[in-house]
Amino acid sequence: MKLAYKYRGVVLLALLAVVLPWCCWRFALRGTLGAWRDCGRLASRLEAMAPDTVRTVACAADGRELVLSGALLAAVRPAAAESDVQVSGYEPLVSVRYDGLAVHTAQLTLTGGYGPLLRVVDALERTLPACRLRTLEWRAVPDRRTRRMRLTLTLYVQQIVLK
Predict the structure, then answer these.
(1) Which end of the chain has fewer CB atoms < 10 Å from its terminal CB, N or C?
(2) Neighbouring residues of 96: CB distance < 8 A, sequence distance ≥ 6
(3) Is residue 129 within 8 Å of 64, Cβ to Cβ?
């Protein structure tokens, strides 16, 4: 019995020296280092692709500015009118400027029923190839006049424009 207690400290120290680093590697560091390597690989691939990507983006944007000029709003109104959807807000802004390119973003708020709102979103995706719908935010908000719930859709639309 005294022999087991005599080597207990050495065994615990050996377990601490072997098992603790293995557990740290297995459960914490292996995934982190793998993600770091993948990120480095993807960054190098992205740097190699950068000139081609800029050329592709330049071809996709035809130079017509839709967001700041209000042409986006003019394109939304007919689709909204035929689907019984109201346009309740429109806020254009320039979100990014970088080396001859600008990203224009518009926050467009629509109010109506679920089906008509989906029809308007489908019409926007089909008729505006120069713009991309980035985010759709659905909310049910109470109407102040009637105190009934109404469905509100906030669209974030982006367009890349050559300066």
Answers:
(1) N
(2) 102, 103
(3) no
